[in-house]
# Entry
Amino acid sequence: MADALLEGRGLTRRFGGLVAVDAVDLVVKEGTVHGLIGPNGAGKTTLLNLVAAFFPASAGTLRFRGEDITRHGPAQRARQGIRRTFQNLKLFAEMTALQNASVGLHASNAAGVFDAIVGTRRHRREERAIANASHAALEFVGLGQYSDVVAGALAYGHRRLLEIARAIVARPTLLLLDEPAAGLNATEATNLSALIHRIRMQGTTIVLVEHHMDVVMSVCDTITVLNYGHKLAEGTPSGIQENPEVIEAYLGHAREPAHAGA
Amino acid sequence: MSADPALSPRRSLQSRVATLVFVAALLVFPAVYHNPFALHMMSLVAINAMVALGLQLLFGFSGQLSIGQAAFYGIGAYTSGLLTTKLGVPFPAALLASGVVASVASLLMVPVTRLSGVYLAVSTIGFSILVHLVLMNEEWLTGGTFGLIGIPRVSLFGYTLRNPAYSYFLCVGCALAVYAALVRLERSRFGRAINAIRQNEDAARSSGLAVTYLKSQCFVIAAFIAGLAGSLYAHQVRYLAPDDFTFWKSIEFLFMVVIGGVGSLFGAVLGAAFVVLLPEWLREIGDYRMLVFGALIVTAMLFGTRGLAGVLAATGRALGALMRRAAASG
# Structure
């Protein structure tokens, strides 16, 4: 334990003239839950997107399990064991919950066009395994009874859980959660904290972007605070809560940018 | 309830019975109605349905709008026509070669799969126009505007299929094989992957899917099927002209998919029947037929985006409900 699973150095992302993330170092230790917090527009989601290769970094390097993955695309990183959820849900709306989860297993299987048409043994074996693993992932997040429901017809909180099921079905090494508690009520947020804890117990390291402080403080081992694209502070939840700079950024003379998100 | 989780919804008894009845009807059709012209038209429906099924995979499943399928159809038709007339290649080999040549040609479209929506559509139209021009101008190979004449009838294992019923069985058989293959593909890992790409490409990519590769596979499969259909067409009509493969033909294939119902394999078959047969039935009204045809297409679209397959499913549901009510009261 305590080895750096993910190591970002000087990560920078510019959007035109705006520097959303400015030379941030991010070291995530294996087996931990690492929180990314900060006021709106601080660059939390941008940083998460750089780790997921949703867009390329303008500068900086990224190492995952010691390997330089700076130039790897999003699908390649997903296959290497980095999976994510999205702040504004991105599900396959016309597919059932079970099918949604099954897509997360695509890269771990091999049966192709020919196997499907001929109905080879490999195809049948894999389909059975995919169905079982997908169902287990739905059960794990608490959606077991909704496996045949079309994703677009699920309640909002359930859709959030379905995204998590799709992200963890392949047992990723690193899971990136982008505001998983957004829009959840108090009970759902508590359940989410318990779920994050259980995912971590399975051996998955987690990076969590979240505004919901109860969730952040209850599940994180380490917290990185971002402000205006810079790293403001880093430490344990209790250390962060007492950090005067963090308190000022959140409560002091508030000068938050007008736009939300990012 | 769901002790055994199902990745694909199980097919109902009704739909299995309906499929069986449909296939049986196709098989007995020549015996009941031995009219050479009707059989010829039905063969053309089967041939066009094959191309439409391939386009359904490409557009309805993977979400890639191609208005260039006539190019692959034409490439397949000319491949088969040339191989059999000029080199005396036997039909089964020419059929396979048509599929292969068309799918190799579709590899030219791989860079284009990075485009989406109208940009992809426009580049496929461009490809369709390009192929038409080649067919028209490379006279040494294709015969140019004079066309390619004297294409032999299909002969299988030394038997020449003179009886229109036999070539009907060949075309319908090929169409059924394509249909069955695509049904299986739809309900597989590959089918779920391309559906996922259509519904949310970002999510598909971050789930580890090789999006460009999967999209290209769809292009190649659709082109292979269009190539096979082109070969059957060449031996069905036995005369090829470049004007059979203009981009208007590509639009006709798109009509078949959209009228039949985007995303429905059976819809593609219904759409093919509609687009091939309707102008024939309307022949009596002469030049007005395309006017009526166009008006019918507009009307069909007003009924909703699920096409003929959607109308059929809704009718089936209504009938089922009516029968249940009758059974409950009676």
Chain A touches chain B through 46 residues (CB under 8 Å). The domain at 89-170 of chain A is CATH 3.40.50.300 (Rossmann fold). The beta strands of chain A are 4-15, 18-29, 33-37, 59-64, 67-68, 82-84, 174-178, 205-209, 222-227, 230-235. Chain A has a mean pLDDT of 93.
